[in-house]
Design a protein that fits this description.
By secondary structure, the chain is mainly α. The chain contains two helices and no strands.
Length: 87
């Protein structure tokens, strides 16, 4: 049986719609967080790391910190704007 097949009534209890939605929300949040981290990691690395090595220079560390802070702030602003627009 694949993951899209409906289980028979005797094999396992049915998941309630509310439980299913909660599980889906958690999975979507995890996927969003992973995508966000990959985007930030890639963009901030490209912007801030001039010569990859075994450690960051002081300037590179500061640049990474500012870059990540800006992405977090921008994501918060966009999320609030989208949330308020839905009301």
């Amino acid at each position: 049986m694949d993951s899209f097949s409906s289980p028979s009534s005797s094999s396992s209890p049915q998941m309630s719609t509310e439980d299913f939605m909660d599980q889906l929300k958690v999975q979507l949040a995890q996927a969003y967080a992973e995508e966000f981290l990959e985007t930030v990691r890639g963009k901030c690395f490209d912007k801030c790391i001039t010569k990859p090595g075994s450690s960051l220079s002081g300037g590179e560390g500061s640049c990474i910190s500012r870059c990540v802070d800006r992405y977090i702030e921008a994501t918060g602003i966009i999320s609030r704007a989208l949330f308020n627009a839905q009301r």
